[in-house]
Amino acid sequence: MKCSIYGFLFVVFLCPPVIGQGDSLSGLQTDNMLHPADGFTAQTLKKNEFVYYQPLLFIENPSPIWFSWGITNKLTAEVDLSAIIHGVSEEQPRFLPVINLRYKFRDQQQWVPAIAAETMFEHLGWGWNSYGGNFAPTPLTSHNRIGWSARVNMGWALRKKFNIHTSLGASYTEELFMADDSGNVTSFYRTVNPDFSATADWRPLPWLSTHLSLSYGVTSLFVDHIPRKYQVAYSFRFAPFHKRKWGILRTFRVELGAFYCYFPDTQRDFQVMVPLITSVYWQWTCKKRNHAN
Considering the entire predicted model, what is its pTM? Predict the structure, then answer.
């Protein structure tokens, strides 16, 4: 059943129909996307472009998660707000930074891809960061202290509305614990692991985009910051009010996502097969107003 579902998704994403191939692009079709379907792109935000990403139904809890800022047209910073909020809300408050930086070296020129470098640093102190929530009977993984990753992202616009993204890198984790179904724990200390992802990105309509990603290692959204896992994810993004005059509606987006994860070290999987993971986000640009003399 799983193979047939994802086989169908591959056909849909890798062989996009010709419908809606007009010259005019708007809404989601012109958005810079950083992590569609938990993948990695070479796209960066424009200068003073912002994204606030808010899960409504998530693996653990619907706390704020990512805030992104286009520092320049080539440099984008992302901050994991949930880690900071969790740290300052403890009995003994502490600062738990999770910061991601992406720098774009070049845009695509013919078949030479767009290229960007990305790095993320996280410091989780001495606390445990476990995953599973209501979707797993026992915690899947936990890790603490320090983590760091670096990767190179590439992107090709094969058509005006269809893109392919790839990413290759490695991550360092100071402490990592993985539990099997019986509660037996496999531990890793000061481990370096490879990271890879490939993402298909199809935006047939201004109000609809569809995404599919395959990855190994660290990802950013669903089972985030955890290495040594295989993941297949897909998502749908909607811009229901992209023609509205009010900015709070025009910049409003919705994402519905699903994924399947497999942890080979514990022979355990973790899945939400239908798009139940719902998030909303706002993506907007602050522009200086021109004042008449």
Answer: 0.83
